[in-house]
């Protein structure tokens, strides 16, 4: 069993052996009756369902009921495809290469602010059921970063699971579990070690459907993925002892079948995790603050110095940690800033469209006047 080639050349692409035709066809990759009903309009035009395994420039590797294929992508699609997308594939013929004719609506999508920090979102993975948030215990746990990752995961519509990796390198793993549990209310926290095998069986039981691995470089995502895959299919690398950072051995997002059923998407390490329209995700992460806020005297309470603030009262009584409230405020401000930038971009795009329409109308009127 081997993972898809990372070459961008259409003629040199290979896919996992388990990606070959099977009795279940697309169902082995998550196809269900709902998707089949949505696909009826595409099937009527001779298109076939395909799931995107990996995206390269201008092409993507896909898997279909007939096995792996390589397909062209382009500007005819409303947005670029992403690993995990379901698509309508035009299989092509002797004269035409296969191409993605359309993307199906995404049930879930993991979005973050683009690396350029502009107002557009970057899609990290699509149609995900479970998000495994890998957090290394080789360095002190950063609760604020974990809360940021959790907001990203909850907002996607998938189910997050916090995976504490490299437990064998932690001085006190139980303390890290306590801290992670406090930062992730209502979320399963699993302590794992690739060295001892601890927690892998628990994680396998929790990882259902389409599973994506998210976390910083060096957090042990690829090692964790290999444990779930039951084979060393994903490249791994050493990390620096001083800060636990790795070398980004994973450079693309890639979908690989799991032996226990479902599929795994490995992702490159995240240097930054900018929020993009994650209001609901933040409500999940800071559920206890949202609940306390309902008892504040004022509906628009900022939880700073207002009289009758139930949130501040909880902090002063020791029920709510000050750090937790500070993190909540910080992420709310960041999310509001990102939303404002998105609104500004959309307004600018609408204005540009109307200006173009107006210019076209004026040119039309001038032409008509000249013909009289």
TrEMBL record:
Q: What class of enzyme is it?
A: hydrolase
Stated role = One of several proteins that assist in the late maturation steps of the functional core of the 30S ribosomal subunit. Helps release RbfA from mature subunits. May play a role in the assembly of ribosomal proteins into the subunit. Circularly permuted GTPase that catalyzes slow GTP hydrolysis, GTPase activity is stimulated by the 30S ribosomal subunit.
> Mind telling me which HAMAP family this protein's record contains?
GTPase_RsgA (MF_01820)
Region (Disordered), start-end ranges: 1-27
Residue ranges occupied by any CP-type G domain in the UniProt entry: 118-273
So where does GTP get bound? 215-223
- State whether it acts alone or in a complex, and with which partners, per the record: Monomer. Associates with 30S ribosomal subunit, binds 16S rRNA.
Record's InterPro entries? Answer: G_CP_dom, P-loop_NTPase, Ribosome_biogen_GTPase_RsgA, RsgA_GTPase_dom
- Keywords in UniProt for this one? Cytoplasm, GTP-binding, Hydrolase, Metal-binding, Nucleotide-binding, Ribosome biogenesis, RNA-binding, rRNA-binding, Zinc
EC number(s) on file: 3.6.1.-
**What is the name listed in the Swiss-Prot or TrEMBL entry for this protein?**
Small ribosomal subunit biogenesis GTPase RsgA
Q: Can you say where in the cell this protein is located?
A: Cytoplasm
**A Pfam family matched in the record:** RsgA_GTPase
Q: Which SUPFAM superfamilies match?
A: P-loop containing nucleoside triphosphate hydrolases
Which Gene3D superfamilies would you find in this protein's record? Answer: P-loop containing nucleotide triphosphate hydrolases (3.40.50.300), Probable gtpase engc, domain 3 (1.10.40.50)
Which positions in this protein are listed as binding Zn(2+)? Answer: 296, 301, 303, 309
